[in-house]
Design a protein that fits this description.
The chain contains seven helices and five strands. With 168 residues, the protein is of the alpha/beta class. It has one domain: Chitobiase/beta-hexosaminidase domain 2-like (Chitobiase, domain 2, 2-Layer Sandwich), CATH 3.30.379. The chain is elongated and about 80 Å long.
Length: 168
């Protein structure tokens, strides 16, 4: 059996490579955040929901539709709000939803949650919680709370709530 001698420089290089590999795997496992796209008005009105998500340790980043460019390839995206809000989400919704879905949520008082896969990239999930106005979108979010929370629980390894969620 032949013995291989490793000098100090080689040992340093091996340890450095091992550290780099560990960092790459750790950061790629933790790279996915929940990206929420909402107007400033919706963001302000949704602070209670954001506080709840943060209390559950959901890694959350919130953007306006104008700030969203460059984040389309993230794994988990939620687009939330009223379809006709000023400086709103309508342009994004037209890229994600079908014409019939757009027509449906545009009706006064209507709101719904939609789940779409592979919108901008493979393996991606985009949740749309939208309505004719913010109030309809908020009602859709509350009505679908068990569905979106189950998805978040799977994505971020969260504890599920005993007896269901409060109205978030």
């Amino acid at each position: 059996m032949k013995t291989i001698k490793i000098n100090g420089n080689q040992r340093f290089i091996v340890l450095l490579l091992a550290a780099i590999i560990c960092i790459v795997f750790t950061s790629s496992a933790m790279a996915s955040d929940l990206i929420v796209v909402a107007t400033k008005t919706t963001q302000q009105a949704s602070q209670h929901w954001f506080t709840f998500l943060k209390s559950k340790e959901v890694p959350l980043r919130v953007f306006t539709p104008q700030e969203f460019a460059g984040h389309e390839k993230e794994n988990y995206i939620v687009i939330i709000g009223g379809i006709n809000e000023p400086r709103g989400i309508k342009d994004l919704l037209e890229k994600v939803l079908t014409k019939n879905e757009i027509r449906w949520i545009s009706q006064e008082g209507y709101g719904k949650m939609y789940v779409k896969s592979d919108v901008w990239t493979r393996g991606q999930t985009v949740i749309v919680i939208a309505g004719s106005n913010f109030k309809a979108a908020e009602e859709a979010r509350k009505a679908s709370k068990d569905e979106w929370f189950d998805m978040f629980a799977d994505w971020f390894d969260l504890e599920r709530e005993e007896g269901g969620l409060p109205a978030y």
